[in-house]
Amino acid sequence: MTIACYARKSNDLKNDSIENQLSIIRNYISCHQDLQNAEILQFSDNGASGLNMNRNAFQELLSKVRQREIDVVIVKDLSRLGRNYLDVCKLMDSIFPFMKVRLIAVSEHYDSKYRKINSMDLSFAFKAVLNEYYAIQTTEKVRNSCVSRIKKGEFLGGIPYGYFLADKYTPVIDEEKAEIVREIFRLYLEKKTYIDVVRTLNSKGIMTEKNSKWTSERIRKILKDEKYIGIRITLKFKKDPKTKKRIMTNSNEWYINENAFPPIISCEIFEKVQEILPESKIPNLSGNHIMARKLYCAKCGKIMKRNGNFYCNKSYQTGESPCFQGSVKRDFLYKSVLEKVKEFIKTDILENRQRFSFSDIARIESEIALLKEKKAEIFEQLFSGSINQSEFEKQNINVSSQLTDRQNELKICRRAVALNTNYGSECPIDTLRRLYVSDELTKEHMQFVKRINVFDSEHFEIIMQSESPLAVLCKNMDIYEEV
Q1: b/e for 219-236, b at 16 or more Cβ within 10 A?
Q2: Which pLDDT belongs to residue 350?
Q3: pTM of the model
Q4: For residues 87 and 480, what is the distance between their CA atoms, to the nearest angstrom?
Q5: How many Å apart are CA 210 and CA 207, to the nearest integer?
């Protein structure tokens, strides 16, 4: 038996420390005979919000649950699993029961072993809702505290290029950098393009505040920043506590201080620049195509841009020579990737020759249980003196070999069942077959590709996902039957 102890801490409360939670769990294990002599694994997320299930250690725990490597999960309380009611319900009523994982919440005296399947107790459901409400309220309190500090004149977060803080309330002009800001505005009025300003600054060896080269996007942000004429606009965005995405607030919620900074640029120059600035952002041509966020220049490491074909954007961003001349032809790249994906998913299609059913899984699990009982009997016979050490080792090797064979057979069986079970309109094996015979690369194919490194217009490296095609497919379909 394998026990997973999970702890999560999102604040600085000492009584809620990772060490304290794990200590409570260890004490619980030591007091329960049925949990003795088990392998114990520890997982902990420090400084992680319960509203977000995408936590490193928690995802590692779930991965081991899906692979049938964990039998029991123990937490101090259910809020450590998460503070989103629906997510916790899914774990308690769907994922853990299906994977035959026992869940224990120590401080709430909850043990799924003594609970009816598919019926989350009302008291625990109510606590889960309260946990979610608490997290949302905490987020709102933090925001209100930040609003209060901002209105008192305190500066939170970063300070614009060209300034430094004498204290947390007083921005002061950094004359050396302020002169560069003035040069940026002057050059743009003269040349009227971002890239010309970038080339001028980079050719002079002038670096950004992060000691990196200037880019068109960095220039655009400076030219549009009203802080350089003294105006500070804050509270334009707020973060959704569940999705973590930034949401723009209504203009009546903004806090505007027209004399927050000593101005570096005159209002007249600033307005002239705004009149000739393009209305929209620099277009992001890396998105909205099936290879978005997966196609990179192997030399500079930046995301490749698309303009019909794909090219390195370094020259456009910094004014330097591109990493390679020309562009990667879309059709040539798509054909190569499609062939690689087909080769990747072919393995799971070929291995799916054996047919199994859920009754086969039950049969093999029953055989495994009997073999485990047989193994326990052999140990008892050795301790009672019914058999000697030599006979024990002989029988133990024989039973252990059979047990390993059955466990391997069970993995194959579960894999085949997962491949051939319908989830919606089709089962995973049919999805793989459909993608394998397709003559056109689609976004479905791209889920199996981790990254593409482009060396030049004709040479690139296609890196596939480390997991099997079935595991990738099941994860994206939100299926937990994979092995």
Answers
A1: bbebbebbbbbbbbebee
A2: 74
A3: 0.48
A4: 14
A5: 8
* Cα–Cα distance measured from residue 337 to residue 463, given in angstroms and rounded to the nearest whole number: 10
Q: Which residues, listed in sequence order, are joined to residue 42 by a DSSP beta bridge?
A: 5
Contact 285, 307 (CB under 8 A): yes
- Contact between residue 451 and residue 292 where contact means Cβ atoms under 8 Å apart: no
Mind listing the pLDDT tens digit for each residue in 83-117?
776 677 778 776 788 778 899 998 888 888 876 54
Q: How far is CA 381 from CA 232, 374, 395, 399, in A?
A: 81, 11, 11, 14
pLDDT in tens, 20-66: 889 889 989 988 888 988 899 999 998 887 777 788 899 999 888 88
Handedness of CA 138, 143, 144, 148 (dihedral sign): positive
Mean pLDDT check: name the lowest of 114-123, 136-145, 470-479: 114-123
Whether 449 contacts 294, CB under 8 Å: yes
Residues linked to residue 4 through DSSP beta bridges, in sequence order: 41, 73
Long-range contact list for 469-475, CB < 8 A, 24+ apart? 469/344, 469/345, 469/347, 469/348, 469/432, 470/348, 470/415, 470/418, 470/419, 470/428, 470/432, 472/447, 472/448, 473/428, 473/431, 473/432, 473/447, 474/418, 474/428
